[in-house]
Amino acid sequence: MLGSLLGFEWRKSNAHLLLLSKFIHPRTLDDFATPEAWKTVLGEDPKQAIKRFLDQGLLMQTDLSAQLDYKFKAVELKKMLKRRGLSVSGHKGDLIQRLIQADPQGMKQAVAGLSVLICSEQGREIAENYLANEKAQRRNVEQQVMEYLRQRKFKDASIAVAAYEVKQVFPRGMGIDWDHHDPDHDITMLNAIFDGKPKILALLNESQSYTLRLVSGMMYLWGTNQGKEWLPLDFETELAIDNDAAARMFLFHAMYRVNIANYKRSGVKQVEILAAQDSCDECKKISGKRFTINGVP
Prior knowledge:
Shape: extended
Largest sheet: 3 strands, antiparallel
Strand content: 5-15%
Number of helices: 13
Order of helices and strands: HEHHEHHHHEHHHHHEHE
Strand order of the largest sheet: 1-3-2
Helix content: 40-55%
C-alpha cells in the first residue's frame, strides 16, 4: 500500500489532500468506514491516512459542543431541553450551550464513544490551499473551454473537459471512461446548440442568443443546470424567464433535435412526451401527447 511505502509523501497525493479537506468541517472515522472508492484512490485504508493526519497534528478531536452539534439535530436537542424544563428558543448553537450549562455530565454521556475530528489550524491551511488551487485550475480549464466554444472548436472543447476529469480524484459521472472519451456526441450536441433556436426565445437578438448558446454549451459539457457563473454580469434580456432557464432551453432544444434525428435514423415513427415534475409549464402542457416523427422539425 502507498501509505506503508518508505518515503511516501502524502502531500503530493491529491486524494490525500482531498481527504484532509473533508475535515474542514467536523467528521468521524465512521464516515469513511466502508469506502472502497476512497481506498482505491488513496492506495491505502482511509483510516490509516486519517491516523497519519492525527499523528502529524493536522487533525484534532473536537470539543463537546461540536460533538453534540455533529450527533444531534436541532429537533432532538429541543426534546432534550424540554425534558429538562429549559427554553427551546434560539439557534442550534444556543441550544447546545444551554444543555451543556445545565447538564454537562449528561451531555458528555450523550456523546460517549463518539470521536469527531476537525482540521487543526495547520491542517486547515493545507486543506484550504489545496481547495484554492483546485478551484483555480478548474477556472483556467473553464476559460479555455469557453474560448474553444467561441471559436467553434467543439472537439477541442470536449477533449479539454475530458482531460480535466481524468485528473480528478473522483471524476464526474458514474461509469464514464474519461480516458477513452469519444467527442463525437459532444460535437453533435454543440452544433445543435449553436445552430438551433427554440421558438420561445424568438425575441432574443443574435448577440443575446450567442451569449446564451455559449452558456448552454458550458452547461452541457460540465454536466450542470446552472450557468450564471459563465454569464456577463450585465447580461440582460427582455424575457420573463431567468437567464439560466433561457440557456437550458437552448440545451433542451438541442437535445430534442438530436434525439429526433436519431429516432428517424432508427426508423421510429412516433414518440410520446412525458414531462418531469420539475418541467416548465409549456412542457407539462404537452405531457402525454404523441407526435409523429416525420411531422417534427
